[in-house]
Structure formats: structure tokens, C-alpha cells
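Box 3.1 A note on notation
Throughout this textbook, protein chains are presented in two layers. The first layer is the amino acid sequence; the second is a C-alpha cell string describing backbone geometry. Keep the layers aligned when reading.
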Amino acid sequence: MRGPVAEFSTRAIAGTINIVLREGYQQKDIQLRVTDSIEQGLHSPDVSLTVPGKTGALSWLLNASVGVRREHDESYSFDQDVVVATGQVQKEQEVFGMGDRRSTRMHLGPRLSYKFDNGDTPTYQQFLMHGKTEATTDSVLAQRIGLIPPEYALSQSASDSTQTFTRGFGNWVHKFEGGGKADVKFGVGGGRSDSDSERFHYNAAGQVTDRFVDGDKSSSTNYSFGGKYTRPYG
């Protein structure tokens, strides 16, 4: 749907994509999926489970998944400071880096719907995500040219972070006589993230020259409510 209208927020100024899910489909089988990916010999397994159910006019669908991702990175960078006027090289450095990272995440997404005798079917879906990441990084700095000593000869860092987010969404559509229709939507959500890291710098003799500690905490909460009434004329 092109162009902004009052029905959507300013974040949809370039337009919106309206996804209408297929109606009338009811999953009946329990599905269990197990996957694994291998990168540089590191396994990253993932397990997901889908459980549908129905009792009278109430139906539900539970989606859950747990996964682990392991990564190993290697990097190389070259830095050179040159005086433009004379072409003299003031400093030349090479940095060799190596890091390992392990991420664990969990997703949970229950969905409930109820069908009334008049055809109204309110639905509500909740989404919960929790993730944890641990990482270590080693960097070796070699300075070939330069009068000022390098910032470090070896840098070692370790970090860990956690993120938890949840969001709920519901809607209720009611049809009136004469073709009128009311559509009410509401949502609630929130999240929290924490991260901590510690980094040590060592000189060529193996002595600690610097220690850096960083910490970050953030949280958010959001609510939304809206509705519209449409009726054809003529």
C-alpha cells in the first residue's frame, strides 16, 4: 500500500506491505524438526517444535525452538600513515585477530483463537525471545615502523550479553448487518538487554598496560491500540 495515511505511523512513510494470512487452515500434526549446520568444524544445532490443538471453539498453536550457534573468526588488517607532501612513512602496523563466539537462543510463540457463534474470531499471539552470547578475542599487533610505541603488543578481551524480548498482538473483527465491519487491534511488548566486556592490553614483555571494562543495560516498553470501522455505500 503506497504512501502514508493516518492509519499507520510515520515509520510507514514510504508505504506498507499488507500480509493477509490464509484463513481456514488448521494444522493437525505435531511437528518436530532437528537441524544442524557445520562451519569450520563447529556444530550449530537447532530444535523446533510445533504443537496444535483444539477444544470446542478454542484452538491454539504452540511454536518453540532452541538453538546454539558457534563461530570462529580470523582477521588481518594493515595500517600505514604516510606524509602526503614527502611520501615518508610515519607508522606501519599489522594486526592479526582471532575470536570465538557462542550464542544460545530460545523462541516461544503461542497463538490462541476463539470462534463465537456469530462468526467473530478474536486471536492473540505472544512472542518471547531470549538469547545469550559469549565471545573471546585475541589480537596481536606488530609495528614495523614508527617512533611512538604501539598501543599494545597483545590484546585479549572477553564479553557476554543477554537479551530478552517479548511482544503480544491481538485483533478482533466483527461484521455488522449491511456490510459494516469493525477491526480492533492491540499490542504490548517490552525488552531488556545486558552486556559486559573486559579487555586487557599487554606490552612486548607480557606486562599488563591497560584494562578496560564496559557495561551496558537497556530496557524498553511499548503499547499500541487501534481500530477502524468500514462500511460500503452504494
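The radius of gyration is 28 Å. The beta strands are 31-39, 42-55, 58-82, 89-114, 123-145, 154-175, 181-202, 208-230.
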